[in-house]
Amino acid sequence: MDTMPISKFKATCLAALERVRATGRPLRITRFGKPIADVVPTKIEPKTRDWIGAYADTVTIVGDIMSPTADPKDYDALNGRLAEQVFGRPAKQKRRRR
Predict the structure, then answer these.
(1) Structure confidence at residue 46 (pLDDT)
(2) What is the model's pTM?
(3) For a Cys staple, 91 with which of 29, 50, 56, 83, CB 3.0–4.6 Å?
(4) pLDDT on residue 97
(5) Geometric angle at alpha carbon 88, from 87 and 94, rounded to 5°
(6) What is the pLDDT of residue 8?
């Protein structure tokens, strides 16, 4: 591992970073002889496949996808019929505002 005083690193920062990238050798930055930071090269990860469109051609549509799956008459919960079926009593009616 190479070492470099912080004053020299400040003056030649871009060149020092390029040297670390090109050689792959880490660089230790020191201040008053004591290490304060290590500059290490990054590991270039292989490019992953884009997730957008990853499931293309994996789904098959069977039947009509636009119409509801159940009869709309079954969705009568707003009229209180669901409360009667579940609780055995009619739902409370909302008070009308004047």
Answers:
(1) 73
(2) 0.45
(3) 83
(4) 75
(5) 70
(6) 95
**pLDDT tens string 42-84:** 887 777 777 777 788 888 888 777 876 766 666 655 555 665 6
Sign of CA dihedral 21, 25, 26, 32: negative
In angstroms, rounded to a whole number, what is the distance separating the alpha carbons of residues 77 and 87? 13
Where are any strands of DSSP class E within the chain? 2-5, 27-31, 34-39
Three-state DSSP at 75 gives coil
Q: How far is CA 68 from the centre of its chain?
A: 32
**Got the DSSP string for 43-65?**
P-PPPPPPSTTTTTT-----S-S
Q: What 8-state DSSP symbol labels residue 35?
A: E
20, 39 Cβ separation under 8 angstroms:
yes
Q: 78: which 2 tokens? A: 């707003």
Three-state DSSP at 31 gives strand
